[in-house]
């Protein structure tokens, strides 16, 4: 059976408490046992019942100890002897306490079914987990054909492993240097340039004005 998912929304949690059946409500009314009861019965918590002696551990009435007179499954509250208050008209009323705020100091074992519950819980905690024994693996006899094939495979020489290629970085990816022939060596080029002087550039001059044009311009 698949375990139910825990409720995370407060609205759904309230609805679950409101719609819970009686057997679930009984479990939710559990309280912790005192150190002495925990050592003797070897359990941590148990559902509170009328007749149990409890001690209040939190709240304004901390330290009050008494017997449980009534358990309210509808409101998830417990009523303890000695934990009362006076009303305006003078009557005394029991104060409700949530079971999470009390510790059980003495159990009411008048019910034989409750004794069986304690024994069952005690056995569960003591029951060791049995280790699953694995069957011994027997050697499987292979047929002759399979054995011959395996021998043939083992006789084949192992292939030589190729050396891994070196990764070339960007800096190493440079163009290969051009081979300089003896004719075009840098020394020879320098001598040729020194021997052959550079030709001088001729600048274009504007054409001279003729005498006729100058006379016409003068007139």
What does this structure look like?
This protein is α+β, with helices and mostly antiparallel strands and 219 residues long. It has a domain at 10-126: SH3 type barrels (Roll), CATH 2.30.30. It contains 7 helices and 7 strands. The protein has helices at residues 10-19, 22-28, 35-41, 112-126, 144-155, 186-195, 211-218; strands at residues 30-33, 45-47, 53-56, 65-72, 77-86, 92-97, 102-106. The chain has a 7-stranded mixed beta sheet. The longest helix has 15 residues, at 112-126. The radius of gyration is 52 Å and the shape is elongated. The mean pLDDT is 79.
Q: Quote the beta fraction.
A: 15-25%
Give the oligomeric state of the chains in this entry, treating copies of one chain as homo and distinct chains as hetero: single chain
CATH topology of the domain at 10-126: SH3 type barrels
Question: Which CATH class of the domain at 10-126?
Answer: Mainly Beta
Low-confidence stretches: none
Based on secondary structure, the structural category is alpha+beta
Strand order of the largest sheet: 2-1-7-3-4-5-6
Biggest sheet, in brief? Answer: 7 strands, mixed
Q: End-to-end span in angstroms?
A: 128 Å
How many β-strand stretches? 7
Number of helices: 7
Brief summary:
32% of the residues lie in helices and 18% in strands. With 219 residues, the chain is α+β, with helices and mostly antiparallel strands.
């Amino acid at each position: 059976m698949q375990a139910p998912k825990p409720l995370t929304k407060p609205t759904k949690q309230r609805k679950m408490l409101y719609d819970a059946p009686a057997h679930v409500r009984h479990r939710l009314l559990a309280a912790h046992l005192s150190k002495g009861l925990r050592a003797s019965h070897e359990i941590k918590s148990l559902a509170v019942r009328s007749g149990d002696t409890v001690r209040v551990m939190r709240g304004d009435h901390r330290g009050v100890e008494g017997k449980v007179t009534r358990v309210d499954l509808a409101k998830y509250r417990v009523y303890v002897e000695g934990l009362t208050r006076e009303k305006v008209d003078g009557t005394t009323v029991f104060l409700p306490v949530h079971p999470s705020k009390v510790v059980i100091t003495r159990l009411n074992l008048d019910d034989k079914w409750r004794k069986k519950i304690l024994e069952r819980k005690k056995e569960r905690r003591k029951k060791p987990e049995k280790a699953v024994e694995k069957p011994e693996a027997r050697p499987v006899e292979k047929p002759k054909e399979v054995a011959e094939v395996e021998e043939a495979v083992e006789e084949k020489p192992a292939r030589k492993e190729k050396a891994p290629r070196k990764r070339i970085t960007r800096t190493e990816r440079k163009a290969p240097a051009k081979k300089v022939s003896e004719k075009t060596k840098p020394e020879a080029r320098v001598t040729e340039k020194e021997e052959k002087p550079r030709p001088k550039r001729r600048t274009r001059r504007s054409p001279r004005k003729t005498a006729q044009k100058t006379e016409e311009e003068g007139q």
